[in-house]
Amino acid sequence: MASTSAPTIPSLKQSFLTTQTTLLAQPLAPSRSWQAANDASDEPLPERAVDDALFALNHSIQQHCHRLYAPQANRNIAEQINKTYTEDAQRRLGPGFDDAGEGALGREMDLTDHDTIEALPETWISEKDINDYPMEAKLYADAVRRLSELDEQRKQLRDQVARLNRLKSVVQPLQTGESGAGIQENLLTRNGPVEKELERMRFLLARVGGRVNALPDGGGSDAASQAVPVTSSDSLGLARKRRIDQFLADAKVFPS
Description:
Blueprint: H1 9-24, H2 32-40, H3 47-68, H4 71-93, H5 114-119, H6 127-132, H7 134-171, H8 193-214, H9 223-227, H10 235-249
Helix pairs in contact: 1-4
């Protein structure tokens, strides 16, 4: 899964400035109240004159915004804002902040990156700050713990997506159409055609077995029973065969 880099302060500021300058460059139009007042006036301004004046004004606004709020100018302003924030933060933190040594948290750290989250210390690095600011130190520890939990959840979701993608590639050959809906009908699936057909066969076999068991053992007119003597060893098999033959020869079941 492709990861996107976190936005920087200059990019956020430049995006904000671009949005605001775009709003300033929008063409102007008379409001409904002004139009109603102009229409109700004894000497209303001609619509053609109003349109010409608005066209000239909007053209001047567009040229002004293009010259004054160029993308390069917005970028320079965003970098100046970022520099001002950085200098103010350094002034507030004191001159020894940049020399905090190994383990210090840099302002450029990407807290959405897995390796960065793994490298974060569980507690604040300065014992003095922990004693002086216990509430802030607790907030930091809670934030790191929560960030680690979210990172683990993201890892699980990525693994799940990878498994689903592998499963999708496995069932890809089973598609029945270009849309990818359904699988081959000859496969045995729950509530599928094969299962329904097997269920019908089971009921049919039960009905046939019931009819066969209900047939009599045969009388003197049965040629098959007279021709085949029944012994104690094969009586069960011959009896079942005789009943099946009688069932198949029954004109009521299979009329000719």
